[in-house]
Design goal:
The chain has 2 helices and 8 strands. It is α/β, with parallel strands linked by helices and 150 residues long. The chain has a single domain, classed as Immunoglobulin-like. Strands 1, 4, 7 and 8 form a 4-stranded mixed sheet that branches. It is globular, with a radius of gyration of 16 Å. The two termini are 24 Å apart. 23% of the residues are buried.
Length: 150
């Protein structure tokens, strides 16, 4: 699979989360998660997204709505973000999450709608794998997650 196909899958996941929130999935038990993204210790070269994918989906999710759900976070050029599951900045459910990051430079020419050419250049090194995040059920709030892309 190409990276573009994989990135498309993450976008579909984000839309699914948004639709779930719009249709009334409860936000019970969310923990605020915030942090800062940097690139080599400096501000990000542009805006981007973080995707939080649960390591294990709870078997009880359909019954009691307490299992982990995927989340997203937008970061701008200052790098700051707040994780979202249902509504902007509401947080994540307790659990372990795999983190994905996306940050693209603006395309230098308009996108060709027939070939989808001229997509922005991905600024995250292909070999970079962010560390997982574990959101505890109790403890200090908000949970802090800082990420330095190298």
């Amino acid at each position: 699979m190409t990276r573009r196909v994989i990135d498309c899958g993450w976008r579909i996941l984000a839309v699914t989360v948004a639709l779930c929130g719009a249709t009334g999935c409860g936000s019970k038990g969310l923990v605020p998660v915030e942090g800062r993204v940097s690139f080599g210790g400096k501000s990000p070269p542009g805006p981007g997204y973080l995707y939080f994918v649960p390591r294990e989906m709870s078997k009880n999710l359909k019954q009691d709505r307490t299992g982990s759900l995927p989340g997203t976070a937008l970061f701008l050029q200052d790098g700051g973000f707040r994780a979202t599951t249902f509504t902007d900045g509401d947080g994540l459910r307790p659990g372990a999450y795999e983190v994905r990051i996306e940050c693209e430079a603006a395309p230098k020419k308009p996108v060709d709608v027939k070939t989808h050419d001229a997509a922005g250049q991905d600024l995250v090194p292909q070999a970079f794998r962010p560390p997982d995040i574990v959101v505890p059920a109790s403890g200090p709030r908000p949970v802090r997650y800082d990420l330095d892309v190298r």
